[in-house]
Specification:
Blueprint: E1 6-11, H1 17-26, E2 30-33, H2 40-48, E3 57-60, H3 68-82, E4 86-91, H4 94-104, H5 116-126, H6 128-133, E5 136-139, H7 145-156, E6 165-172, E7 183-186, H8 197-200, H9 207-214, H10 217-239, E8 244-251, H11 257-268, E9 275-280
Parallel strand pairs: 1-3, 1-4, 2-3, 4-5, 6-8, 6-9, 7-8
Helix pairs in contact: 1-7, 4-5, 9-11
């Protein structure tokens, strides 16, 4: 049986090799793109002898390399003899490949001086022998990004799907929005401790500040509804294959209300299902 800890992904140009490479990287593989075929044995040998601190490796190779068609079959024959690798070939229909190249406006690697369709057909003929060597051929013609991830997940994600990493970050609007935020929620409608002299110099981690912000009817309702909304969204993001989600909670300065709400969200969300971290960008400003 082939070893899926060492994968080689190849296939037709436009069939989704970049998407697969990113998926495998998110799933714990160390990915190398467009490695010359003659270098594969050396890298495989280092991996096999555990001289690299890498458990799972994926190589993406294709016809862009000038010597690929002649060198790769010999390289793969040696890896196959050891039963220490798995070859995945990505395919798609001519019509879909032409459409994808038209949408991306990128040139087909074999279409110099000819139409994209002619390049696609030429590449298909040249790769027919390598396709015949594959352990698995995956046709991506009818696959959206989410569907392709769903197809790959049970095969290569391992026994256990890594949990969605959720970063809850507090911030102050007067310091600007977090650039990497996926979801942004505004806590400026909640009671503001800044106007309470005994709380002004404390921050949202303090018990009294948290009680002031979230202890009343408005604060309790806000936390309950936001927690419920995120509880609805997170499993759906995870099912789509998202591996990291940044939830930003803002108030005016980023010291009181947003901090209290971010800390409370960590306690509200199911930490057993997700890898939840909290950071406070502007708490010391």
């Amino acid at each position: 049986m082939s070893d899926d800890r060492f994968l080689i992904v190849t296939g037709l140009s436009g069939s989704g090799k970049t998407v697969v490479s990113r998926f495998l990287e998110d799933s714990g593989y160390y990915c190398v793109d467009n490695l010359p075929a003659k270098l594969i044995p050396a890298l495989h040998s280092l991996w096999r002898r555990r001289e690299l601190a890498i458990e799972r490796m994926a190589l993406v190779v294709d016809i862009r390399e000038p010597g690929f068609l002649t060198d790769f079959p010999k390289v793969w024959a040696e890896i196959r003899r050891r039963k220490e690798g798995r070859l995945i070939f990505l395919d798609a229909s001519d019509e879909i490949l032409v459409k994808r190249f038209g949408e991306s406006r990128r040139p087909h690697p074999l279409a110099r001086g000819r139409s994209v369709l002619a390049g696609v057909r030429l590449e298909r003929r040249r790769l027919a022998g390598i396709k015949g060597l594959a352990d698995e051929v995956i046709d991506t013609s009818r696959s959206s990004l989410a569907q392709l991830k769903g197809t790959l997940g049970p095969r290569f994600r391992g026994r256990r799907r890594p949990p969605l990493r959720v970063l809850v970050t507090s911030f102050g609007y007067k310091h600007g929005l977090p650039l990497d935020a996926d979801l942004v929620f505004d806590a400026r409608c909640l009671p503001n401790p800044f106007y309470v002299e005994s709380l002004r110099e404390k921050n949202g981690r303090h018990r009294r500040v948290r009680e002031f912000v979230l202890g009343g009817p408005a604060g309790r309702a806000y936390l309950r509804r936001l927690g419920g909304f995120l509880g609805f969204l997170l499993p759906r993001f995870a099912a789509e294959g998202k591996v990291r989600l940044v939830v930003a909670v803002g108030c005016t300065g980023g010291r009181h209300r947003s901090v209290a709400l971010a800390e409370a969200l960590k306690d509200t969300l199911p930490g057993s299902k997700y890898d939840i971290k909290v950071e406070h960008r502007d708490i010391d400003k």
